[in-house]
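User: Run a structure prediction on this.
Assistant: Running it now.
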Amino acid sequence: MTNGYGAEQVVTDCGIDVGGGGHQPDLSVWAKGRPPRPARSSYAGTAGLLLAVEVVSRGSEIVDRVIKKTEYAKAGIPRYWIVERDGVTTVHRHSLNAETGEYELDPDGAQPLAWLLSTVPAIA
């Protein structure tokens, strides 16, 4: 188990089809019994995808904070977390607003990674 999710649900090497192309998040979490499946391309479709996580690296700030965030929202991925490489490794948790089609920062959205690793985050 990985923080309450089965090993088959937590994937580190899976490209996601976001329509018109794809991205490979640093980590993705899938619904139980709904592993990644190929879509129109060599990338997996978004059916069953609960969460995409990106770790911001020097040089990827704009891609992770703007481009991927926008494309993941358009693809309907319910949650997007951005992990900062700051002193506490802050995780900014976003949820998709069904009405606007954009991500909103969760009310308690910024948490240190250590806190998230010691809990079972509700993402289903």
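DSSP finds two helices and eight strands in the chain.
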